[in-house]
Write a sequence for this structure.
């Protein structure tokens, strides 16, 4: 398949007169200028970006990744341009988590998701968000070993609070096992956060949310995470979790190559307002904002990465190449997937076509156009 008339966005530039060919599930040629042959589809100058990569997503379309209907969640986000996703799980009892990661391992091998992200259970109770505080606990190396064994090599990331007893040993164990250790849902001090980074933690889970704000005598985790070049900083760019000025400031301080836009979406994404559950916790969505019924704290989002991309450019001060990095390239690097995050020869043929308002218009996944049109 030869596609022409492309305005192609890369992590470094925007090429206004590009073309490319797809054979099977791979991009086989990329060029600029006049296409070398009969064009199968002329995109008439539409902006094309790499398929989005979401490191942190709990569900969407009425389904969660912790349920038996994970396929519906993956399909919903695929319609909105997310061609690669980690399936995120909230905290739970050990036996529940082992069963869930085992089930998601099978879906990973089938290619539905790119692996599992465990958000917890080694989190701070005082920053639990939508996690059930009764199941939060200190890290156990034995439990980590059981979870990684149940996942069969598909556990890609775990979020934990560095101040919990045994957290540094847990980070080291995860890193040795090839699992990205992330810092989040934490009351950690600046010094504790720096120690966690030194132990191997490399991601800030939705920086600014579920952690103390910066204080001039107690700078806390946010400053430590921002100042270390080894740390990728997740942002929930939905206009609810973060002020646009904070998004812009994180991009400026950390650099666009360290920002990872995520959805942190729950099952409610795409379904409208109503009552839902995140694990064992009751959640109410009103005006697109999801909040724990008992406490009123935010409980994930109803965001898509397509919307996060658009907001990054229109409100967050990102250039289009910077938004490509933040929604695709950096996350693909963290997952160790050089065939994602770029539109280049040898990459998986995952493309998102955006309209003039930067909204998702069409999605190509593994060389096949997604049949269901993206909902407005």
């Amino acid at each position: 398949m030869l596609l022409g008339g492309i305005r192609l966005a890369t992590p470094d530039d925007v090429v206004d007169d590009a073309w490319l060919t797809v054979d099977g599930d791979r991009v086989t040629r990329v060029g600029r200028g006049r296409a070398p042959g009969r064009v199968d589809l002329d995109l008439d100058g539409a902006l094309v970006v790499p398929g989005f990569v979401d490191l942190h997503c709990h569900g969407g379309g009425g389904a969660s990744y912790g349920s038996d209907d994970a396929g519906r969640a993956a399909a919903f986000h695929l319609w909105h341009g997310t061609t690669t996703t980690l399936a995120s799980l909230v905290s739970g009892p050990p036996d529940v988590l082992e069963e869930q990661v085992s089930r998601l391992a099978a879906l990973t091998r089938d290619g539905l998701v790119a692996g599992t992200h465990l958000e917890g259970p080694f989190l701070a109770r005082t920053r639990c968000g939508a996690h059930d505080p009764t199941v939060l606990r200190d890290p156990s190396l034995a439990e980590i070993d059981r979870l990684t064994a149940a996942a069969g090599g598909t556990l890609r990331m775990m979020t934990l609070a560095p101040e919990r007893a045994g957290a540094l040993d847990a980070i080291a164990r995860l890193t040795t096992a090839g699992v990205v250790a992330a810092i989040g849902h934490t009351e950690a001090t600046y010094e504790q956060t720096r120690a966690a980074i030194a132990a191997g933690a490399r991601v800030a889970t939705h920086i600014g949310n579920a952690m103390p704000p910066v204080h001039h005598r107690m700078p806390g985790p946010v400053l430590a995470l921002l100042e270390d070049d080894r740390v990728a900083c997740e942002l929930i760019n939905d206009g609810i979790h973060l002020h646009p000025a904070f998004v812009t400031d994180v991009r400026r301080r950390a650099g666009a190559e360290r920002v990872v836009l995520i959805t942190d979406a729950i099952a409610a994404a795409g379904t409208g307002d109503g009552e839902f559950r995140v694990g064992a916790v009751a959640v109410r969505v009103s005006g697109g904002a999801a909040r724990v019924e008992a406490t009123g704290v935010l409980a994930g989002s109803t965001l898509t990465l397509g919307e996060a991309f658009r907001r990054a450019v229109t409100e967050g001060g990102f250039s289009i190449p910077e938004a490509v990095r933040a929604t695709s390239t950096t996350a693909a690097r963290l997952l160790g997937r050089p065939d994602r995050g770029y539109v280049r020869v040898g990459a998986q043929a995952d493309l998102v076509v955006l309209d003039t308002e930067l909204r998702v218009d069409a999605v190509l996944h593994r060389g096949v156009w997604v049949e269901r049109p993206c909902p407005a």
Q: What stands out?
A: Residues 143 and 226 are 30 Å apart (CA to CA).
